[in-house]
Amino acid sequence: MVKGLFPIEELSARRTPFYYYDSALLRATLAEISSLLLRYPDWKVHYALKANFNPALLQIIAEYGLGADCATGGEIQAALDAGFAPDGIVYTGVGKRDEDIRLALNAGIGRFNVESVAELQVINEIATAMGKVAKVSFRVNPDMGAYSYANITTGLTENKFGIHHTMLEDAVKQALLMTNIELCGLHFHIGSQILDTADFIPLCNRINQCLELTDRLGVTLRDVNVGGGLGIEYDHPNHRPMADFASYFEVYKKHLHTKLPVHFELGRSVVAPCGTLISRVLYVKEGVHHKFVILDASMTELIRPALYSAYHRIENLTSEEAEEVYDVVGPISEHSDVFGKEVKLNRCRRGDLIAIRSAGAYGEAMASHFNCRPFPEAFISEQ
Predict the structure, then answer these.
(1) What integer pLDDT is reported at residue 150 of this predicted model?
(2) Which pLDDT does position 143 carry in this prediction?
C-alpha cells in the first residue's frame, strides 16, 4: 500500500472516478528538463498536447517555457489559451483541415510539420490567399521503428506518417518552387513508450543521412526536430517517478552530427507519472476460477488497457490486509473493459479506494461518453 503518497482524506471525499494530478511531481519533472537543457542552449522541448490537454496542467507546463506540439486546430487554440508562445507551437498531423491551417497562419505559429507533398500544396495555396508565408518542416518517415506497441509505432514504411526518406529529395525540390513556403527544417518520430535509448541511435543515423541530402541540395535549414517517444516506468512508478531524460538527450548529443538546433516533442514522459485514476470498488465477485474486483471506473475513463493491453500499476489505497489475486475490471458491458488480470492487491472490499497509476498521459485526453457516462473530473494537488 502506498497511501503515504496520496492525500487519502481529500481523495476519499470526492466522487469517483476522477483523475488526481500531483502538480509537485509535474513541476519537478519540468525543472529536471529545464536543468538538463542548460547544457544545450540551442535545444528546445515542445510539449505534445495530445498526451493531456487539461488547461491547469497546460498552464503549469507553459510557465517553464516549453513549446507546444499540436495535432489539431483545437490543440493550437488550447496552447494559445494556456499561454504558450505562438512561435513555439509546431503543428503536426497527417490530415490538417483548411480552417485549422488558417488558424495556425493567423496565430503565427513557429512551424508546420508537413506530412506529404499534397498537404504542402494546400498550405501554400492557403498561405498565398492570405498573403502569408508558411514556415514548414518535412516530416520524414525514416522506415524504422523501436520495440513498442505495434499501434504506437510511427516510423515504418507501412505507417501513414510522413514522407518516406527515399522521396525527400523530390519533396524538397517542390517546396523550393513554392512562393509562400519557407522550408525550415526536418522532422522525425519513430514511435512511443521507448525505454531503451539505444533505439534512437539508428534514427540519428537516418537523420544524418537526410541532412547530408539537404546540404547537397544547397538548402539552409534552421533546425531538426527528432520527435519524442521517450517512455516511462509503468511497472515501478514509486521507485522511478521520472523518465530518464538525461540519457535520452545524451544519445542525440553523441550520435546526431549537426550543429543545427535540435527540437523534441515530449508528451507521455512529461505528464504520465503525475496522473492517477482514482476509483472505488463496487463489488468483489467470486468466480469459478477468478476473483473479480469491479470498479466504478471503466474504459471510458482510461482506454489504454482495452485499446492495446497497456499495463498500469494498480494499488489499493485503503487496505492494509494481506494481498490477494484479482482480475480488476470495469462495469461496462464490453469484454475488453479490463484494467488488469491476476493483479496482487491488498484484500479488497466494497468502497475501497483504488489507484491506477501513471495515467497522466492518454487517460483523461482519450476519455469518452460511451454508455452516457460523464467525463471524469480532475483534482490537482500540490501535495
Answers:
(1) 46
(2) 86
Which pairs with CB-CB distance under 8 Å and at least 24 residues apart come from 152-159? 152/191, 152/192, 152/193, 152/308, 153/190, 153/191, 153/192, 154/189, 154/190, 154/191, 154/192, 155/188, 155/189, 155/190, 155/191, 155/203
Every domain of the chain with CATH number 3.20.20.10 lies at: 24-272
Q: Round the average pLDDT of the chain to a whole number and report it.
A: 94
Query: pLDDT, tens digit, for every residue of 186-230?
Result: 999 998 999 999 999 999 999 999 999 999 999 999 999 999 999
Bridge partners of 316, per DSSP, are 354
Q: On the CB side of 246, how many CA atoms lie within 13 Å of its CA?
A: 4
Cell matching residue 238:
514509486
CB 134 within 8 A of CB 180: yes
Report the top-level CATH class of 3-7+273-381.
Answer: mainly beta
Spatial separation of the C-alpha atoms in residues 284 and 242, rounded to whole Å: 33
Does position 88 have pLDDT exceeding 50, yes or no? yes
- The C-alpha R_g of the chain, in whole angstroms, comes to 22
Q: Does domain 24-272 have CATH number 3.20.20.10?
A: yes
Cα 296 to Cα 333: distance, rounded to the nearest angstrom: 13
Cα distances from 81 to residues 56, 84, 360, 366, in angstroms, run 11, 8, 21, 20
The sign of the torsion formed by the CA atoms of 91, 94, 99, 101 equals positive
What is the structure's pLDDT at 273? Answer: 98
- In the chain, which segments carry CATH 2.40.37.10? 3-7+273-381
